[in-house]
Amino acid sequence: MTHRYFPHTPEDIKVMLERCNLATLDDLYSDVPDNLKLNRNYDLPSEMSETEVRNFFKKLADKNVSELTCFAGAGYYDHYSPSVIPALLSRSEFLTAYTPYQPEISQGTLQYIFEYQSMMASLTGMEVSNASMYDGSTATAEAMMMAVAHARKRNRVLVSATVNPAVRKVIDTYAHYHNVVVDTIAEDNGTTSRADLEAKIGEGNVAGVIVASPNFYGILEDYTGIADLCHANKALLIMNCVASALGAIKTPGEWGADIAVGDAQSLGMSLSYGGPYLGYMCCTKALIRKMPGRIVGATTDENGRRVFVLTLQAREQHIRRDKATSNICSNQGLMALYATMYLSLLGNKGLREINEVSHSGAEYLVNGLTSTGKMRLKYPDRPYLNEFVIEVDGGDVDKFIADGIKQGILPGVKIAPDEILIAVTELQSRSDMDALIMLAKNTFAPNLTPSRHE
Amino acid sequence: MNREYYGKLIFELSREGRKGYKLPKHAVEGSLSDIPSTLMRESAPQLPEVDEPTLVRHYTNLSTNNFGVDTGFYPLGSCTMKYNPKINEEVAAMPAMQKLHPYQPEATVQGALEAYHTLQAALAEIGGMSEFTLNPFAGAHGELTGLMVIRAYHESRGDAKRTKVIVPDSAHGTNPASAAVAGLKVVEVKSLPDGTIDVDALRPLLDDTVAAVMMTNPNTVGIFESRIPEIAQMAHDAGALMYYDGANLNPMVGVARPGDMGFDVMHINLHKTFSTPHGGGGPGSGPVGVRKGLEKFLPNPRVIKRDDGSFALTTNDDALGSISVTLGNFAVEMKALSYILSLGNEGLKNVGPLATLNANYIKSSLNHVYKLPIDRICKHEFVFDGLADKSTGVTTLDVAKRLLDYGYHAPTIYFPLLFHESLMIEPTETESKETLDEFISVMAKIAHEASATPEVVKTAPHNTPISRPDDTAAALNQIVTYADLTQNA
Fold first, then answer.
1. Are A161 and A295 contained in the same domain?
2. What's the pTM value of the predicted model, to 2 decimals?
């Protein structure tokens, strides 16, 4: 009976059962029909000590090839992670709290969510932010449903072909079950085809248009006029952006978007094999009542002090039940705290510096890789920030990646048999990039004389 | 918890020229000047400028105005606020797990895939299911995924007219909301006075337009639905599937399995039953399990074990689609696996019984001063319908707020909707008899105060960092950013 997580002594159990007028623990389940009871042990391992648990995970961890120099991105980036953040996140007052339903004893959580909302709204150039969402893909799907709910009878959403295809799959799944029709806006040399957008939006019934910045190929698209086009057709413009990039690039607010969504993993969060990350959603004040998720607002308490509460809860699933257009009932609390601390430490200058260094690093790498003669930038006339697509002439991207891993380098993400998506952040040193260039030469152009690229 | 209100915002500590970072030595001189200026930000974001010590002190002070499971007893019904073991945090933060990119080649993530597969198999054993996906990010996300599995199943049989889901009127608010998001219409079925589903009212609702019956067992009043085999039989005879909302799984751990009760699809909240921290609202994890025959409908990607013992990520066309890019909140999943290993068979066997014992102990100790609408053995939680003596005008909200003064988190209040003054208490198995005894005496004391000095209770809390906030003003003024705050000042 005794386990280090259970405080009950045999004497406690006896006294407690007596209070309930019961004789045994089994009596607590007299209402469960016998044939439904398991009446055996689970087929699971026996109780482990901490040392055994640690060893179990150590053995698993040893089967991974980890701590590679990471040039992989495709939505998730290896950025500098300040050590104070995990230290503060592990404070149990933050870690072991529930959703802040009782504001009198939850000001810690409520206040950092307010800070988070403030920072994300400013970063995206929007007026309001919710308290965060699961990840960028589900936040984008939620934005789609928000647009459809806002449009009432129109249920068609246009998604640019340059949106991350993995995010697109999630959009398509939600759309299928939520009776939303999704059409693709064709791609034009790595960017959203304006002609196709105009044609498709002209067909009518469009509730929303979803585009990305930087797009899946790392390209910064020129969205001049797109917001007006959407609004002229009563559609909402939804922009999916890499959070970190917004420290430098034109914001959804500046483009005239109605909803900004995306993943905030790029704000220094561990790659952690896919999660937890952080989805964000910001919008115009006009749309606040249509926005899913928690929202924290400032008010006063009975003593007139400025305090923070969950607000506009009438929007939410536990009130609206089957009238709801979102079933979101939590946020990604601790990860929102992560983003808040990261943005506070880096500030505007730090974010800008990261984008500058990453961009210049990417240019250096593009020059080096293309100098092999076997690799080409796929969209040479499109501006990129810190990620780009390289085409390999008759080359085998799988082999490039496999060769890289042998040297402790993850060269990028394969997006076609002869195309690789490569990202650079502030964490890759010049020697890391030179190593990748050398690897490319050895894999694809072994006969070329290696020369140091400047 | 610090009962002095801290109350400052990080923006108010900002001073121009301070910074809290230093980037690694640059590979090359950084510049963005070659990008057309039309593609660049016009105005800088309004972010604070703070140094590291200032930031650390700010968030440390902020945290002291927060209440967590480690701070004190958290009897929040349906939320299963059990102890969050520290070893879980340690193993989930191992660099060889934490530094994996989600698009690394399969051969380089064998340990991570094995961990995922091990946990899904353990949950399948505990749930009595065939296979779990761990991809859903939260309980509500799990519900949505589970309902999508059900729709994919009916679609695969070309049965397009099944567009309804039957939900008891005592259901968690997420159930009907998840159904609506999954494109299903909700039909409510009434509960009997004892809180259980009205089987006679259910029977005529079960026709060939019903996709699923969605239930939690024990239900939201903490009562085990003993007629569940009959209900499952009726649903299956009508061609519908049975969905198990795992929010209330904790009392069943070690005792009975949803799969054996006749459920076809279920979700589990790892942040409830399997001890991963709630984190002030997330990240959670809501794995979804299915019975044999439904595995192929689980979302992409799936993790399978090959015959040679290696692990692979797979996708298939029968799947409902994708509800996440990768494998969900992976680090949270690792914490749950650590918990299952730490408890093992011997420990898991006692989770349900001890959680149930704790709930019944509180119920039996307070049913003379609080109104107990359903006087039966409960499972992990139970509901009082406010104070026994209603003449004082002291409400459930007042009792909840007064509990904060005495150092407890409040129970869940005004849910379920079956009673006007619901006060839903769930103690979990990790609370000691001493803690429960102290809580019981405080609850009794508040009942006494309600008649002796009702104003003290009605104006509670008095001993918390802040007093009751003005919710109406918050909704009216919509001050939701620091920019709003400074404009209003």
1. yes
2. 0.97
